[in-house]
Protein 1
Amino acid sequence: MNITILTLFPEMFEGFTTNSIIKRALGKGVATIKVVNIRDYTKDKYGRTDTPPIGGGSGLIEKAQPIVDALKANKTENSHVILMSPRGRTYDEKMAKSYAKLDDLVIICGHYEGIDERVNAYVDELVSIGDYILTGGEIPAMGIADSVIRLLDGAITSSSLDEESFNDSILEYPQYTEPYEFEGQTVPDILYSGNHQAVAKWRRKQALALTKKHRPDLFAKLELSKQDKKLLDELERGEEGKWEIEAKEKGHKFLHDKEKKNG
């Protein structure tokens, strides 16, 4: 997959493309990122890409000509062109998955007080990352590129994608590391039970609880199974399920050794 980013500040992407998972994905050829400097396409005799708005108003507006010419020079027949805009649809994981299926994605970063309205006629979609104001579209473009690239085959291990926040409109369950006890807080005993089915059930229960508490908007979208409803009922009553108690009892010896070691 190729991602082309049109920006006035290409240097902002240097760290993004040369670190961590993105660097490895690009190195393996999983994806390519082409950063295009919009300034290279201006026909303004002073090299400017922005101007005060016609009719008056504060700030500077990006001209249509440099953006449109940069777009025409760098897109292909298969390009899906998006413009970062507060008018756009709010970006989410479903959109990331749809973009990950594309061969070519072009992202236009706005800046200053906005862009010439006529640029909208050259894009396929307007996209927003939320109802707040940033100085430009570069950070949103990085967010979109990151979320798309990590979904591509070979970018990260497939198992890492199986259970994550926002998959199926649910937050991820809590995760823990050693040691068993840290400043008075201990790892939930069931995770040491050795019962993989019970652990999976507990994780689902916790994911439901976290989503209901922190993201009721996501929770409202869930299609709850019969098991989900039983788990939620246990949460409502503040009780452990029989399955949970039995799993912990069978893992009691291991837990006892753990507590003794940390005691």
Note: The longest strand covers residues 79-90.
Protein 2
Amino acid sequence: MNLLEIQNIKKSFGDLQVLKDITMSVAESEVISILGPSGSGKSTLLRCMTMLETIDGGSMSYCGESAVKTEGNTPVYASKADLARIKGYYGLVFQNFNLFPHYTVMKNLIDAPVHVQKRNPEEIRKEAQALLEKMGLADKGDYFPHQLSGGQQQRVAIARALAMKPKMLFFDEPTSALDPELTAGILKVLRELAAEKMTMVIVTHEIDFARSVSDRVIFMDGGVIVEQGRPEDVIDNPSNDRTRAFLKKLSGEENT
């Protein structure tokens, strides 16, 4: 079953067309890595998929429910109540953590499940503690974000997204704000989630990670999907010149 279907998505900022007719789907339990140079449209695509940006054309549905479709030339989004329900299908982890600085770690995790999902606070607290243990942060519940390292904050952000029990998770460059040592810890968490069959869409520049954890790799450039397929095909044996040039440049940077 496809958890997400997008068709013919377009997005411009002023005269700059950032996304040009993007069509893709995400199947249940699938891990997709989106690669591409800076300015290729990958983060904008993620923001459109998570409805942080509105699209200019095309359609998008989650779990068979329409979030937006284009009638004539006008995108029409679902009602506020329907969108609130649809947004519950996914979670989003930002590159800069976006934790509430004035909340403790525990309150960051339990606030939305209690107030948005109206679930049992005691039950949620137990689940949140289990998530912190899973992230190696069992003793950090009473800490505030500024008392944690960047890697710990990112693990809290992942735990916060999981606390909402989403069907899928989006990650926007989850390691770009971290140094290499902390990056390894976050990639380990993502590998564990992949092993548990969590559906994930990850915008990343970590080529080795994308190769090892992804079911499918999408390479974007110039606002279009240039190439997609199994990681061993797209990363190790790309068929498109633009993909080859990007990977060659990236491996050159990593070797300097």
Note: The mean pLDDT is 92.
Protein 3
Amino acid sequence: MRFASPFRRRRGAIPLVAAALAALAAVAGPAAGPAGAQTLDKVAFGTNWVAQAEHGGFYQALADGTYRRYGLDVTIVPGGPNANNRILLPVGKLDFYMSANTLQAFDAVEQNVPTVVVAAIFQKDPQVLIAHPGAVERFADLKRLNLFVSKEGMASYFQWLKAEYGFSDAQVKPYTFNAQPFLADKRSAMQGYVTSEPFAIERQSRIRPVVFLLADQGFSSYSTLIETRRDLVENKPGLVERFVDASIVGWYSYLYGDPSAGNALIRKQNPEMSEDLLAYARERMKTYGIVDSGDAERLGIGAMTDARMAAFFAAMVKAGVTKPTVDFRRSYTLQFVNKRVGIDLRPKN
């Protein structure tokens, strides 16, 4: 049994070295602007993997006409194993990009890549550690187990686990996005996303695993961030604002309304995505407050705050993941969020 893990799909940060960008820019050329006769602004939005429920609000906004109502003709460009949409953003082939986590924004600042985060759709990173039932009772008990962690995980959240909880490199085994080693070792845990791996494990092994969301243990990275270029923020702030606002409305609609339009478009782009998994992932996002929790409850979906950015940066510096010299404040702007856009679409309990 092999899982196409969302951790690999969404978190794999590829360094954006200047040479690579220059080479790509040379062959790509400048992006074409909308024709003068058009009434809608053309926008290209790149995701970081194939279509799935974790992208649901964006597909909902496209499928139900929300983007068009905001004056936008949006094309969603899916990512995938042979795509690197992140590089296409700074060279002008994409207007917006769905970034996996806050660490990628810090990395962009360190490498002087001219991109900036303009909204954080996920208040909680969906990263989890998954254990066998009966093996652990508390999160700290995971320190007694073998842990299947990917190379990307070792370079990011696992360093935080070591700094904050005393986890050890000695307990780690390589995670190759195959659940069989975990299933065979009852004294082990594996990485995954709360929206997918537990579903696959339950379906194929008939066990209900114990799931620990790292965000609920203090790992405070934002996830599913909307990034754009600094020149768009400076020269076309109205375009940026309309894309952010329409995406937020799409996410409220996907979570709390009828998601069928968005799901149909997701399945059209990715026929391997089942209706059952789409429903499960959407329900998990709601249950765990992945999108609509914390600051988003009062400021609206997409919320970000200076305090949380500063706290996460300090935690990553402490863990040795990020250099203390990085000017993290340049990685984001609050110009387009915290305005309670679409908040009236949330059900009133």
Note: The radius of gyration is 20 Å.
Protein 4
Amino acid sequence: MATEVEQHVHVQTHDGIGLIRLNRPEKMNAIGALTRQQLAEAIKQAERDDAVRVVVLTGSGRAFCSGADVTEMVEGAGLRTPEDVGNVLRNEYMPMLTRLRTMPKPVIAAMNGPAIGIGASFALACDIRIATPESYLLEAFVNIGLAPDGGVSWLLPRLAGTGIAYEMFFTGKPLPAADAHRLGVINRIVPADQLEAEVRELAGHLAAQPRGALAGAKRAVTHALESTFEQALEFESYLQEAQAASPEFAEGVRNFLARRAAKQT
């Protein structure tokens, strides 16, 4: 008899919102081999599914994600050599994190608790972060003799500044939600019992927006992070040309003119 596979990742799609929930609350949603496999498939399907217009990533229980399951890094538990560690980062984490940053859909991190190590990378790779007061970001690699990974050396300095990033990397101390919000790393903080409703309201609003316009905004920001001002202006011009020829734009103009006409009568 085949053994039923544990579901470390739950996926729900409703009203244009694709909810991806890490589901290992007993391990604070630590990511092991099975979790990586299921999470990669969930993110890929969310990107490809036309019914999904907004993606939400969250965790079960009291944590968003406590990072990689370190028990797999010891002899006999999965990852056995330094090359294994590097290959998992290159071949498994890199495609997932890149997909979150580049998919033409808004991605919201609903931080229901701490985001640690690779868990922080997943939160920071999302476009918007909404957190509870108890949430924090932690880069504790130094505490186990490792350097930062999961793209956090690129993400965190751009969001919080190099000084904050260096301090976190060098000390292994957390960045509390209140400080992260003050720095602009977290968009807003809401009580734990209101997090899902707040995220659902925002996700529903975004799901009702023109998807081409949202995709264009995401592409523009991603491009601008590696561009000169002049290059960003040129890329924006290209994106606007494409959108100006879209049915979304024609409908938007019609609606705008109709609303203006209604106000004048």
Note: Residues 82-102 form the longest helix (21 residues).
